[in-house]
Amino acid sequence: MPFWYSNSKLAWLLLPFSLLFWLISQIRRALFSLNILSSYKSPKPVIIVGNLSVGGNGKTPVVVWLVEELQKQGLRVGVISRGYGSQSKTYPLLVTPETDPVQGGDEPVLIAKRTGVPVVISPNRQQAIELLLKTQDCDLIISDDGLQHYKLQRDIEIVVMDAERALGNGFVLPAGPLRELPSRLKSVDFVITNGGKNAYSDVIMTLVPHYAINLVTAEKRLLSEFTQGSAIAGIGNPQRFFTMLENLNIRLAKTKAFHDHQHFEPQLLEKLAENQPLFMTEKDAVKCQAFAKENWWYVPVDAEIVEAENQGQKLPQLWEKIRHLV
C-alpha cells in the first residue's frame, strides 16, 4: 500500500487495528516461547529466510544464493516452503524442475530449477520437513519464508529487506507494512538489504542480470544486444525489474505490472509482445513456458552479496555458525 511508505493520515486512523494485530501476535509468540503452544524441532538444522514486511523484498534470490554457497562448502541442502499460490490437491508435495507451477507454486519451482535441490511445499512445515528427510539426504534445511511461523523452531534467522523502502512507516499491519515491530531485528542473526545500505544492513545484496533466455528456444543472449522491448513483472516490486532493464539501456515501449504470484494466461500478454521482445522475470517465466512465443525472454538475476561498510566480517560469522550446526 502506498500510504505505508508516506506520512499518511490513513495510517494513523488504522492504528487501533494495528494495536490489536500486534497484541494478538505478541500473545501467540509468548505462548510458543513458554511452551504452552507446542512447536516442532527438526532433526536437522533449519535456516529461516524471511522478512518483517509484506511485499517483495528479494527472498527467493537469497534462498538460491544461500543454497549455492552451502553446496560449495560440501553441504547437502533441502528447501521447504509454504508454497504460496500453489493449487496442489495433496500436501506435502515434492517439487521438481518439471512440476507444474500451478501445482507447486512459482517460487518453489524456480528454486528447484535454479539449484537442483529437493524442494517440499506444505502449509504444515513439519510435514514438509518430514517428507523431505524421508526421501532425501540433507545436512540442513532452508525455509523460504516463515519468520513468524513460530510453530517451527529454527537455528538461524535471516531477514531480507528492501533497502529503499526499508520498514516503511514503522507500523504493523494494517497501518503499516510490518508483521512485527522493528525491535524484532535485534533477535535475528543476519539482515540482508536488497539494493543498497540502510541503518539495518549487515550485508548488501545486488541483483545482477547478465543475459536473457528465450522461453521457446532456450537461447542465451547478452542483454547488451537488446535496445528495446516491452516488459511484464508479477513480483512484489515490479518497478525494480523495469528500472533494471532501463538502466541497461533497453527502451521499454510498454510495461505491465501484475500482482505477486499472478496466474498468467495467453490473453493477458498477447497485446504486449507485438513485433518486439517481451521481457519477464524468471519467476514469471515458469508460469508462461507452456504458451510462450518466440520473442519472449526471461532475465535471470544472480544475488551478489557483500559486507556492509563498518559492519565487520558478518559473512564469515554466518558460515562459522552454520558449520557448528551440521
UniProtKB/TrEMBL annotation:
Residue ranges of the TM segments: none
What EC number(s) is this enzyme filed under? 2.7.1.130
Q: Which GO terms describe its molecular function?
A: lipid-A 4'-kinase activity
Q: Does the keyword Secreted apply?
A: no
Pathway(s) of this molecule: Glycolipid biosynthesis; lipid IV(A) biosynthesis; lipid IV(A) from (3R)-3-hydroxytetradecanoyl-[acyl-carrier-protein] and UDP-N-acetyl-alpha-D-glucosamine: step 6/6
UniProt keywords (A-Z) are:
ATP-binding, Kinase, Lipid A biosynthesis, Lipid biosynthesis, Lipid metabolism, Nucleotide-binding, Transferase
- Stored InterPro entries: LpxK (IPR003758), P-loop_NTPase (IPR027417)
Top-level enzyme category = transferase
What does the entry list as the binding residues for ATP? S53, V54, G55, G56, N57, G58, K59, T60
Catalytic reaction list: a lipid A disaccharide + ATP = a lipid IVA + ADP + H(+)
Keyword Kinase attached: yes
Its domain of life? Bacteria
Q: Which HAMAP family does the entry mention?
A: LpxK (MF_00409)
Which NCBIfam families does the entry link to?
lpxK (TIGR00682)
Similarity annotation = Belongs to the LpxK family.
Q: What does this protein do?
A: Transfers the gamma-phosphate of ATP to the 4'-position of a tetraacyldisaccharide 1-phosphate intermediate (termed DS-1-P) to form tetraacyldisaccharide 1,4'-bis-phosphate (lipid IVA).
Full protein name? Tetraacyldisaccharide 4'-kinase
Species of origin reads Haemophilus parainfluenzae HK2019
Q: Which gene encodes it?
A: lpxK
